[in-house]
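quick one, 406 residues, struct below
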Amino acid sequence: MAVAAKKAVKEFNYVWEGMDKKGKRMKGDMRASGEAVVSANLRRQGISVSKVKKQSTLGRGRKITEKDIALFTRQFATMLKSGVPLLQSFDIVAKGHSNPTVSQLLLDVKNDVSSGSSLAQAFSKRPVYFDTLFCNLVNAGEQAGILDGVLDRLADYKEKILAIKAKIKSALFYPAAILVVAFVITAVIMIFVIPVFADLFKSFGADLPAPTLVVMAMSTFFITYWWAIFGILFGGVWFFFYSWKRSKKMQNTIDRLSLKAPVFGELLEKSAIARWSRTLSTMFAAGVPLVEALDSVAGSAGNQVYFHATKRIQGEVSTGTNLTSAMQNTSLFPNMVIQMVQIGEESGQLDSMLSKVADYYDREVDDIVSRMSALLEPIIMVVLGTLIGGLVVAMYLPIFKMGQAI
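---
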């Protein structure tokens, strides 16, 4: 008969104080299911416990972000490079973090390591925060005895990926914010301003200009069916993001179309190539085998088109095809990237060449964002001026006519 799975015991963090066999006062913290377990564990280590207290969290922690993980990686790498022992490094970074949720996560990882797990195993138990790439690099660093160097490289990688994501978000956020503001202003004018003018024009007893009649009809429609307009708008946005997160087919379609979009398509394509090259360079430099590295690289580009292309490259490389030919067969990578990879394979400096490709495309993304910002500002001003100005002029035309008649 199958044995029922044992229910996981909930653990808490406890701080303790005591004395060792030499009479030296000691203190620390431990993750356990209760005070008795802490006392028993410490007695086995030869420590006479004088105080054990459950540690309370300092307020509710924020959600753990990629920036938190990048900051931890940089701090952890610095600690290890300075010669601080592994477990003590976890203590220092965890207690110095401003987010209690991150502190608790790091203490959990530390407790796994102190109980016998490798660092890569402890991280792999928490895939929400530490992805396959992170765990593979840490494992490679542990195996080769160069964990501090690998973590330093990993911190550089995460910081650069965060930087390129921030650039893309800033480029997309500005026009999106302007569109939202334009919609709000237009809605306010339609609902509150135009009806006042409409009441005023009823007493004129003359025919109104065509633009004024159109705007008034739009205002009446907006006031009558505002619930349908807002419902369709917000419902459509919600449905788009809901289906995009849960449907692979939807993601493939959106990602494919986004790469062909004017202006924004070039930005997304170059940022995807930069992230792809940066990830493969980091993995290869850490000593991760190429086929295994490509498995992590597939999801790093942030685009389903490059994900499927990388899987095809991985399949071809695993059967003996060189990386250059496999990349060329996808028809996704520019000729410059192919040539740099070919030089890297022939010279044995693939990681260095890929890093240079990533740096080049990072600069390209910077240039595109700068050009977009300079180009979008006047275009948005013209669109907003035409929209708002058109509404205002349409409502003032009857007043101008009345002034001419007088």
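The radius of gyration is 30 Å.
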